Amino acid sequence: MTGGAAPITGRRPGGPVLELRAAGRVHGEGPRRVRALAAVDLAVASGEFVAVMGPSGSGKSTLLHLAGGLDAPSEGEVLVEGAPLASMRPSTLAALRRRSVGYVFQEFNLLPGLTAAENVAFPLELDGWGLRQAGAAARSVLAECGIADLADRRPEDMSGGQAQRVAIARALVGPRRLLLADEPTGALDSKTGSTILELLRDRADRGAAVVMVTHEARFAAWADRTVYLRDGRIAGSTGPSDPAALLGTVDAGAP
Ligand SMILES: Nc1ncnc2c1ncn2[C@@H]1O[C@H](COP(=O)(O)OP(=O)(O)OP(=O)(O)O)[C@@H](O)[C@H]1O
Q: Where exactly are the structural domains of the chain?
């Protein structure tokens, strides 16, 4: 199996890959209490690409962290392929995160000292893939991301944009059913940004559920649906045709 053209299939055909049910998250206590997310209901099906937009501090990253099991909700629940994350044993949750969920976050977290190909192969090796098979899958996905030439380079010898593309390749490698991307185009020029959007779109078209936080309506236009957050709540949502129109109606705010 490679990160190439194999279909990505979920365990529960028909059911959402990701579901947030009345999910909320409060940080801190007393005067330091911050409500980051409140009563969010969101279901993302296999094959669906959802963009999340909203002003700075509106809860977008919190939503992604809950969706990927990196943080737990204070209220409500999060289900991946029908399984509530809260009821999973830590080892089961770790295996799900490693195998089924691909994360592209603003911090690249590439391992220094390992080449790009080794970094991309690493999650597969953790999951029991043989070195050769994992290496081949890594090189294939690096090629898909247009960075085959970086395969043998280490993160310390890359630009920020190059490291970001390697991190994206790492998130896409293997049979991921849920892709979570927090401003994946952040450090990239607009041509490379579009390439990454094409890759995410392609993964959704092949059956993954994709959730992407973005500040840019032109990137949200690649999604099937845009959900707009304000003060931790869903303030509106729209289809693919016109995220800019939605921004006009719900007070875009500064990024
Ligand atoms: N670990 C934390 N401790 C305390 N407050 C937090 C923590 N994480 C997030 N918050 C607060 O929760 C709110 C939502 O934060 P979040 O990072 O989800 O917003 P965001 O929409 O992703 O913002 P940005 O666009 O600036 O990245 C903010 O008020 C933030 O300060």
A: 110-174
